[in-house]
Amino acid sequence: MDDVDAVTRAVLTASRLLVAVSARSLAEVEDRVTLPQFRMLVVLSTRGATKLVALAELLHVAPSTAMRMVDRLIAAGLADRQINPDNRRETLLQLTDEGRLTVENVTMRRCQEIAGIVERLAPEHRASLVDALTAFNEAGGEPPAPDGTDTDPHPLGWANLPSGHST
């Protein structure tokens, strides 16, 4: 299939499915965290304690926007602030145990639903899909997702999105 329009339509359809999977994986925590806030939790989970300015840059938001998001996450018990031991004038943001568990649970639900969809594919379609998606991801500059033995959720492209966009 060399038709760019047909491939584009197929990828758009798949992206709708993946967005729906992402939304369903967040459903259990949506009363406490929005998708942009979840992006922040994922970044904190992969980077560890981070300065607000660096976090804002990674998420492509203004520091004031990042601070409002952090304040909401702190109020929800998902993140906290601490003084940087190397520079007492700096504050570092990090996940609480509850924040870490939230990221792990949402990521696990997302993986389980995707695995359920993949299991319904014929084995030959699975192999073709791996080849096609690998080529697609490489063309888009997206690093590979971790394998099943790595529990790190990786923000997968979130750091490269312009403000207001999310997966």
Assign the CATH topology: Arc Repressor Mutant, subunit A
Cross-sheet strand order for the largest sheet? 1-3-2
Unreliable spans: 153-167
Coarse morphology: elongated
How many E strands?
Answer: 3
Q: What helical percentage do the residues reach?
A: 55-70%
- The Cα radius of gyration reads 18 Å
- Main β-sheet description: 3 strands, antiparallel
Q: Identify the CATH homologous superfamily.
A: Winged helix-like DNA-binding domain superfamily/Winged helix DNA-binding domain
What is the number of helical segments per DSSP (H or I, 4+ residues)? Answer: 6
- Average pLDDT taken over every residue: 86
Strand content: 5-15%
Distance between the termini: 27 Å
The CATH class name reads Mainly Alpha
Please give the domain count. Answer: 1
Q: What is the level-2 CATH architecture name?
A: Orthogonal Bundle
Structural class: mainly alpha
What pattern of helices and strands is seen along the backbone? HHEHHEEHH
List keywords for this structure.
mainly alpha, 6 helices, single chain, Arc Repressor Mutant, subunit A, 167 residues, elongated, 3 strands
